[in-house]
Amino acid sequence: MAGRYWRHNRRARASVAIGALLLALSAAFLLLAPQLGGGAAVTIGTASLITAALSTVSLGNGLVQFLAWWHRRATPPPAPTSADIGTAKDILAGLVAQQWRDETVLRSLCDPEPMPLPWRSTEHRELADHPEIIARGTVAFPGLGVHIEDMARNFRALRSRRLVILGGPGTGKTTLAVQLVLELLRTRQPEEHVPVLLSAARWDDRLHPRIQDWLAESVAMDYPALRAEGLGPAIPETLVARGEVLPVIDGLDELPDHARAAMLAALNRSMCENDQLILTCRTEQFAESVHDIGDVLTAAAVIEPQPMTAAAASEYLRACLPPVPHPAWPRVLGELRAGAVPALSEVTSTSLGLWLVRATYIAPRADPAPLLALGRGTAADLHDHLCDQLIPALVSARPPAEGPAQPFRPQHMWRADEVGRWLAYLSRQLTIGKEDSRDVAWWHLARHTPSRGVRIGAGVASGAVVGVAFAVLAGSPLVGALIGVPVAGVVMFVTGSWFSESPGHADFQVRGRLSELLRVLRDGLLVGALGALVGWLMASPVFGLRVGLEAAWQIGLLSGIGFVVVLSLIRWVEHPTTEATARSPRSTWQADRNLTVIRIVSGLVVGLMGGAIALKAQLSPSVAIVGGLLLGLLFGLLLGSHHAWLAYKLTIPRLASRGRLPLRAMGFLEDAHRLGLLRTEGPYYQFRHIELQQHLARIPPQSKEPKHPSPLP
C-alpha cells in the first residue's frame, strides 16, 4: 500500500528527491569548509547549514504528506449533516445564478426579450425513448411557441427530468439551456436539484467513466466556496453522490465521433433512477451517436427548434432598433418579411444569425444596405460577411468605459485587427489538437508552450545572481560557483512542474480551523526534530559533540520554522470561504498571484532567520543578510503546489514577441468577454459560438506566427 502511494504521488517523490540532493550538497559543503579557511570557510559552512535546513524541509514535506495520507486512510471522515447539505445547495444555487445572470447580460439574451424561437418534441422517433417512460400520459413539449416558464414546467413534469435539446448550428441550444438554468433556479424548491451548466468538452470518459466523478470534480473546481470548512467534508462529492446536482451538459457535438458515442454510453451506464440531466447537441451528431451505441438516452425527452419565420425575425429586429433607425432599415425589414432576400431569411431563422445581424448592424448604428445585396446571394456568403464584420462592429460599438470600470464595457482600447489576429491564433490553437475543445484557460498558455528554453534561462539567471552575490560578498569566486551552480540545477529541475500546475487560492480564516493550525505546528515540530537529527549526524562525527549540538539546534530551528512558515502555511491557507464567489478566469489569476506573494514573503522571513543564525556564527553582516534573503526568496518561490501565475508570466512575453497575444493577455481576454466575443464557463473562457471559432480558425496565420503552433487543450 505504501509503495503504491509513492509510485502515484509525484509531488512527494520530487520533494524527497530534492531533499536528498540538497542533503548531499550540504554534506559536501561541510567537508569542504575546513580546507578553504578564512572567510570562505565561514561562508561555505553557513551555506552548508542553510542547505541542510532546506533539505530537511523538503524531506519532511514528503514525510508529512505520507503520514497525512496514512491517517486519512485509517480514519474515515465524518459524513455531512442534512443541514450542511441544505446550506451547500443554497450556496451553489446562488453562485450559479450570479454567474449566468452576468452572462445573460453580456450575451444580450433578454434584451429586449428572449429570441422567439419555437421548440417542440422531435419528430425523429428513433432519437427518443418510449413515450410512457419519458412522461406520464402524453409526451411533454407538444406546442410551438413555448415560453421559458412553460419550458421549466414541462421539464419538471418529466418522470426522470431528463431533456435533450437538439438543433442545427446557431439555433439557440445553449441560449435555451442558460435560460432554463436561470428559470429552474428562480423557481427552485429546497428539495429540488441545483442545475449546473458545464461544457461537454471538459469530460474525458477515460479519466472519469462515471458522470458523477466528473461532475463532482468540476463543481469543486468551479465553485470553491463548497470547500469551506464550515460546510463539512467533501461537500461537492456528497452533493453529486446524493443526486442533488442537475448537470446541464452543453455541446456534446463538439467532441469527436468516438468520444461523443462513448459519453452517451457512459451517461446511460452511470445514471441512476433519480439522476436528472439536460444535454445539448446538434441533431446530426446526436443521431450518429445513437446509431453507434444502438440506444437512446434513457428516459429523456428530446426537443428541436422550429425555423423562425421571416415575419418573426423581422419583428424581433424591429424591436431591437432605436426609435429613429437608419433610413435603410424599413426597406430591409420589409423585404425580409416579403421573402425577397432568401439568404437573409435563412440566416435570421436561427438565434446565431439574428445575433450577428444585431451585433454588426444594429448596435454600431451601421448602414444595413449590404444586407439587401448579400441577402439575395447565398447564406454562406452572408454568414461569412457577418463574422468578418463582427469584431470591428463590437469594438466600435463598445468603447472603453470612461471613469470607473463598468462590468459590460472593455477597460482597454484595442484595435479591431489586433483583436481578430489574437482570437484567430487562439481559435487555431484549439482546432489543431487531437481532440476538439473550446476551453481557453490562462494557465494552459504556459502548459502548451515549449518551456525547456525558459526553464534553462531561469535556472542560469538564478544561479548567476546567487553565485555572483556570494562571490562578491565572500570575496571568493569558488564560493560563488559552489553555491550558484547547484542553485541553477535545482531551479531547472523544480520549475519543470510549474508549466503544468493549476492555479491556487488562499484563505486566512482562522475560525473553525484551529485543529488544522495545531496540526501545522505539530508537523513543524516533527520536521524540526528531523532537522536536529540531520544536523547532529552531519556535524558531530567530524567536529565533535559541541559543534554537533550547535548544528542540531540551528538546523532544527531553521527547518522547523521554515516548514511551518512556507510549506504548512501555504497548505493551511489554501481553503475557500463561504463568501467566495464562483471562480472566474480573472479571480483564479489573481488568487494564484496572491499565493506567489505569500510564498515570497514567507521565504524572505525564513531567509532573515537564516541570516540571523549566520550572524551568530560570526559571518559578516552583508553575507548573512543578503545571502539569507536571496536563498529565502528562492526557497519561497520554488516550493509549494501552485505556480501557474509565475509560469504565465514567463510565457506571455514570448507569445507577445511573436505577435500571438498582447503582453496584457488577461486584460485582453477579459475585454473580449466584455465585448461578447468570449464567454466564461467556470475558470475557462470559450468562444461565444463555435461557428465564430471555426470561422476565425480558417484565417491564415501572419508571418510572425509559426505555421504549426502547439495546441491548447
From TrEMBL:
A Pfam family assignment: NACHT
UniProtKB keywords: Membrane, Transmembrane, Transmembrane helix
SUPFAM superfamilies recorded: P-loop containing nucleoside triphosphate hydrolases (SSF52540)
Superkingdom of origin: Bacteria
TM stretches of this protein: 49-70, 454-473, 479-499, 520-539, 551-573, 594-617, 623-648
Domain NACHT: 161-283
Keyword Manganese: no
Protein name: NACHT domain-containing protein
The species this protein was found in: Spongiactinospora rosea
